[in-house]
Amino acid sequence: MPDGDEVYGARRAERLIELLRALASRIETLDRAGHLLDAAPELQRMLGDVRSELFHYEVRRTYDTPELAERRRIVEEARQEFTLDLPEEDQPWRQGPAD
Prior knowledge:
Blueprint: H1 10-33, H2 40-58, H3 66-81
Helix pairs in contact: 1-2
């Protein structure tokens, strides 16, 4: 895929639509000719391709683009940099109730 596994762009989505339409068309053609079950190996291959691509489409939101990964790294670095390790006596909100 030209877009790679990290990004599910418009071109890759269009390719998935084409795969789905090709599978549907092939099933219809085989069914009309009465050879639907005779083409089991071909259909298995096509189904595998479509299934794999559908999986990538379904989980596309979990992928990070390089830009998002860099932003996440910067935020995490900043969080670590600004974490204050104050002793408990400097944290009145953590102290128990006054006696």
